[in-house]
Design a protein that fits this description.
This protein has 159 residues and is an alpha+beta fold. It has helices at residues 2-21, 26-45, 50-73; strands at residues 106-109, 116-121, 124-130, 140-147, 150-155.
Length: 159
């Protein structure tokens, strides 16, 4: 019985280690199942050594993970998982286009701002946020701030 326990444990740890280099999930899942089977067989066959079996397998799993990470950081395999280039704004990688020329312009609320909604400024539909007030649909607003894609508006008094 001890042979099966050790075989399942070593095979499971090996498959978990292989998962670092051949990602996909199936090797890791089978490896975890083999380690659990090894633990269950060991506890069933040697009930007096339950704590030692669990400690041994946890230690082995920790060492396996540490070894995998150590090998991964010293080989080119890690390079396959990381981005080597930078994303420059000049190449079109922009998370949010900021248009400061909107500040001071007026528009009409298309969907109620509670506090976020949609407004129309000129011919453009824009997502906007009202600062701490509810603004009903159809009311006039003025753009007070623009931060990236966040457009802050306030209701017009004369509307």
């Amino acid at each position: 019985m001890i042979g099966w326990v050790i075989l399942f444990l070593v095979a499971g740890m090996g498959l978990i280690l292989a998962e670092f280099f051949l990602p996909g999930g199936i090797l890791g899942v089978i490896g975890v199942l083999l380690v659990i089977t090894s633990t269950a067989l060991g506890i069933h066959a040697y009930p007096g050594y339950t704590l030692w079996i669990l400690l041994g397998e946890l230690t082995g799993a920790g060492l396996c993970v540490m070894l995998g990470l150590w090998v991964l950081t010293r080989t080119s395999a890690l390079g396959l998982l990381t981005l080597k280039t930078t994303q420059q704004a000049g190449d079109g990688y922009v998370s949010a286009v900021s248009d400061p020329s909107l500040v001071g312009k007026t528009g009409v609320v298309l969907t109620a701002l509670r506090p976020a909604g949609t407004i129309r400024v000129g011919d453009e539909r824009l997502d906007a946020v009202a600062e701490s007030v509810f603004v009903e649909e159809g009311r006039g607003v003025r753009v007070t701030e623009v931060h990236g894609s966040r457009i802050v508006v306030e209701p017009l008094e004369d509307n």
